[in-house]
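In this section we walk through a basic example: taking a raw amino acid sequence and producing a predicted 3D structure, encoded as discrete structure tokens. The instruction is simple. Fold the sequence below.
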Amino acid sequence: MPYIKKLNPENNYPIRKGLQEGERALNAGELNYQIFYYIKHNFDGSLPYYTVENTIKQFVNNFLGDKPNYQRYNDMTGALIRCTKELKRRLQIDTVMLINIMESYDKTINEYEDLKINENGDVE
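The resulting token sequence is shown next.
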């Protein structure tokens, strides 16, 4: 589990607070933190399941940006898997939802992989 600094040491910007309020995560650690925090504080049944799921999808889409690349897809996948495991380990929350969200990107990632195979050639 990444432990994000409260403040950016370069400009004292409140990193955690921004992520907690839905600002775009800039790396896998921030995405993991953002999702973990959100689920920790909102997975108590007070919000409908689809609201929680849609919010997490928005975090992921913001992270991926307009032009996702291999690194972004890989980081997103890793963040969702590690966050799932950490939520279960620390909070006993079984969030199959995060795996389902990750798998919902399979078609898009496969299309990206096929494009890159055509552009650069396959593994030899």
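Looking at the output, two observations stand out. The CA atoms of residues 69 and 112 lie 8 Å apart. The chain has a mean pLDDT of 93. In the next section we compare this with other chains.
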